[in-house]
Write a structure and sequence with these properties.
This protein is an alpha/beta fold. Helices cover 23% and strands 18% of the residues. The protein is built from ten helices and 15 strands. Strands 6, 7, 8, 9, 10, 11, 12, 13, 14 and 15 form a ten-stranded mixed β-sheet that branches. The protein has a five-stranded antiparallel β-sheet with strand order 1-5-3-4-2, with helices on one face. Strand 6 and strand 7 form a beta hairpin. Helix 7 packs parallel to helix 8. The protein is globular and about 60 Å long.
Length: 421
Amino acid sequence: MTRTRFPRPPAHRSPARFAALSTALFTASIAALLAMAPPPAQAQSAPSPLASFTRTLNAAISGYNREHLNGVSPEACAAACLADARKSWCVSFDYYKASQQCDLSDKRAADVGGLKTDYAGNPYDHYALIPGPGVPNPIVGPYGRRHVLVIGIDGLRGDALFCAGCATTPALSQLAAVGAFHGNVLAGGSQSTYSGPGWGTLFTGYWADQHGVTGNDASLPLRKPHVFDRIKQAYPTATIAVVGDWANITGNLKPVGADFVVANAAKNSQQATDAVKGWLSWANPPTAIFYYLHNVDIHAASYDPYNAYYQSKIAGEDAQIQQVLDALAARPTYAQEEWLIVVVSDHGGTGSGHGGQSAGERDAALVMTNRYRNPTKPAYCQGDLTGTPLPQTGALTPHVLDFLGLVNDTAGSKHPACGSH
């Protein structure tokens, strides 16, 4: 496919202001003005109340329940805890997963000797309110505090981006235009092209025979450290956030030291987006964020880059990413921060699925920049990198470690055109 130049983002246009019209000219004038006026800006949804909580799976505070709510979702419980009538005392809640109930509490786990995690059948999840405006990021470089935002798009083929006739992706195009792109990161090979092995390889820098997640079984633990846990090991006060709808992402594949975990509803990208926007609204956002988008993994005909249905899912997730990028760039301190934004995918696809070793299934994507709406920062990586082969072990973990000045002792290597920073 012929690659095209990355498009420049369109200039912003402000809505027209209409003067009062006389009664005689009202109908004709309104018609003319409406024809010239730009469409109204799309309203931005409010951040999810769950973004203010850290979630601990299969755990609860034993006792100390102050208020019980019935027929509620986790989001409703979080909103209730944050409501004016309760915000003076509510600091946590336990959610009954099967019966849609929750108990609001004025105690934290540390106040009562910890969480109980051995309930029969694991009926509860515990949600703890994040105190204050977040924890200051301890990683400071010459261009400000360094953060990492990893955007994981499940099922995105690398050759489905930035080519004539492919999906229109203004958000991803803007990232690539000021950074780097690789259109054929090699997934699979020594492992299947299922999601579990792919994300395990991206998160650790090792193939599945070493990291241990050889399939989609959520009981398979990572046997190698998650890259975000490596950040925690080097900087214990760094905070880590994860949001995703796939149970493996918030379960066996999540960092052991994750501080904030949000499980959005299945294929509900807006909920995931709202969680990330909530974190970015803090004075001190998490040091590292993983933001998982699931809708491109269609499991329907077809994963072909020119298939209209596949393109619509790519374009839909691109619109979600744009919301997050807008929230990031709107941070009052953004110019004094340096964010490495990395977009990766776990596998491609062929026909209506994936798992095998065809070229389409092995074709994954990488987009990376530290200069989104921050042009004064020296580029960590720039240009189309596709000409140099890049195995999946080198796509994510080595670049994150290099950007943060940490030693990479994994099986993967960063692209030779990138870093050190």
